[in-house]
Structures are given as C-alpha cells and as structure tokens.
Amino acid sequence: MLIVMEALADDEQIERVCAEVAELGYTAHPMPGPTRTAIGITGNRGPILEAARIERLPGVHALIRVTAPYKLVSREFHEANSHIAVQDVTFGGTDIVVIAGPCTVESREQLLTVAQAVKAAGATMLRGGAYKPRTSPYAFQGLGEEGLRLLAEVRAITGLPIVTEAIDTETLPLVTEYADMIQIGARNMQNYALLKAAGRSQRPVLLKRGFAATVKDLLLAAEYVLNEGNSNVVLCERGIRSFDDTARFTLDLGAIPAIKELSHLPVIVDPSHAAGDWERVLPMARAAVAAGADGMIVEVHPNPAFALCDGQQSLVPERFATMMTQVAQVAAAVGRPVAGSHPSDIQK
Ligand code: PEP
Ligand code: MN
C-alpha cells in the first residue's frame, strides 16, 4: 500500500504516520517527491485491515493499494525515474551511459589497452569479469582477486569506474571492496541469497535479466535488493532464450518500454551477449537507444580471436568507436546525449 501525504504535510506528520505503520508491524518507506511525500508500506501479507487508522491521521491525503507483486521497484510506489549514481556517472537521467570493456580480465596489458581505447571513444565506465560463471566447468573461470586488483589499477590510471560480477556470496565481500558497481549476472538473477547480500552491501547493483526470466521475475529479483535497503539498482536486458536460435539470445527490446512503465529503475541493454556475434552488435546497440534504454554494456577486446571468453561477440576498439558515433546519432534523434560526449561528437 502507498500512503500519499498532503502537499503541506510537515515532518512531524510524516514521522507520526511512519510510527503508526511500525506499530502495526509493517515497514514504512518514506519517499519525498517534488510536491508531496509518499510512504510505501511493505511487510503486509494481504490487504491492510487497519487502513482506516492510518487514513485518519493528520496530513494523510489518500491511501492507494499497490496491485503489482513488487512494491519498492514499482512506479506505483515511486513515480519519478530513479537516478543511480556510480561515482560521477548517473544512470536514469537524460544521459545515455555506455559501459565497455572485455568480457574477462585476462592481463594488465589487455585491460589497460581496452580501457584506454573505450575511454577515448566516449565510454564512461569499464566492465571486466574477474569471476566468470561459465557454462562449462572446464572453461576459463576468471583471474579471481588478481583480476579485481587489475581492475582497480586500471581505474586509477583511467579514472573509469568499474563494474564487475559477483557470482556467489563467498566472494561478494571481496568484489564489493574493489568494484564501484556489482554485476549480478543472468545465471544468478534468482540467487536470492546473493541478491539479499548485495542488498545489504549498499554498492550500486547491475542486475541482468535471466535468460528464462519474465520481466516480472526480473522486477521481483530487484525487489530483493531494495528490500534489504539498497535502492541503487540498474536493470539490464541481455537477451532471452526463445524458439529461435539464430542469435545467441533474443534481445527483448519490448522489455525496455515495459520496464519503464512498471518501474522507476533505470534499464540498460547488453547487445553483446544477446547478439553473440560482433557483426550484429551495432544494430542492436542503435535499437536499444531508440527503444528508450538508459545505456548499454558492450564487450570490447583488442584481439578477439585470442579472447579467453566471448571473443566472437567482442568488438575491436575501432568498431566500438564507430558504434559510439552511431549511438550518439540515434541518441540525438530521441533527444538524449551520450554521457561524457560533447555535442560536437554527434557531427562526426
Ligand atoms: C557477462 O556480462 O560477461 C555475462 C556473463 O553476462 P550474462 O550474465 O548476461 O550472461
Ligand atoms: Mn561475456
């Protein structure tokens, strides 16, 4: 349920309502808005029978039943778009944020080369896996802590904040120490222990949609993180499994406006894992911006033929630079700048 306060309600009245909600055994989430404060209630298993008690309190304007199964992530709870800050990068504003880097951190030279190239082309965040959730147990599993150390070193050199994946609760604390943003991958979208632990960490979370997950499943997974007190979540559409295996996954572009309608959280797109092939990444990146995505995460490798993971879908730096030019053009067409770029870049 959502309690909408009068526009002129004062702090004391808001506190009184929160205290009443707590007394009833529920949790109150005050959300100040531009004109009035709303207070979300969670912890109730069904309709709140004591609604009349709340409704009569001074300063209360109206009570609204939230019909969605997810609460804290829903637009019903929070009307305005959430802005999620990762160092000086902001997701969910007008700027389109481009994160780029290798699938996996392989060496200092590989990471630094890619980081400098993507930064020069306009990316404002660096990606790279240190712990890799591989389909085969015999495939390269990542450099582990050494990979995290390299990410931190390259961040210090380039100034690019880093996002890297945490694959389990055991290594999450270490990942949290190094990363500016914790990635929870498609295979772990419903790892509830990991979601809850990430929710307690307070680090921004990049939550990727599972490839057999509905939009509702994704939003409920995000709800786990917010419910632990961490509202810094960015969602990522990265392709789902369908009957068609022409592409590695099917990029569900329709999920972008759907998520925007249902939730206030930013949503970005991963065209690399969806396409599975570097030649198809650029059209998907352009389409993502046209469909309203707040950004994207793209795999780049200096020598894809020798990549230890996902070489087939990795762009060489020159191709990535072309992608950035095209993305800026589509972004301009939908009235959005690309973060970190200058208006003159669009003319290129
Ligand atoms: C990745 O980003 O490298 C990755 C493994 O992505 P996903 O979880 O979407 O498969
Ligand atoms: Mn990958």
What does this structure look like?
By secondary structure, this protein is of the alpha/beta class. The chain has 2 domains: 2-64, 2-Layer Sandwich (Alpha-Beta Plaits), CATH 3.30.70; 84-345, Alpha-Beta Barrel (TIM Barrel), CATH 3.20.20. It contains 11 helices and 14 strands. The chain has an 8-stranded parallel β-sheet with strand order 13-12-11-10-9-8-7-14. The chain has a 4-stranded antiparallel β-sheet with strand order 2-3-1-4. Strand 8 (125-127), helix 4 and strand 9 (162-165) form a beta-alpha-beta unit. Helix 6 crosses helix 7 (215-227). The radius of gyration is 21 Å and the shape is elongated. The termini are far apart. Bound molecules: phosphoenolpyruvate and manganese (II) ion (MN). Manganese (II) ion (MN) is lined by residues 103, 273, 299, 309-310.
Give a short summary of the structure.
This protein is of the alpha/beta class. The chain is 33% helix and 17% strand.
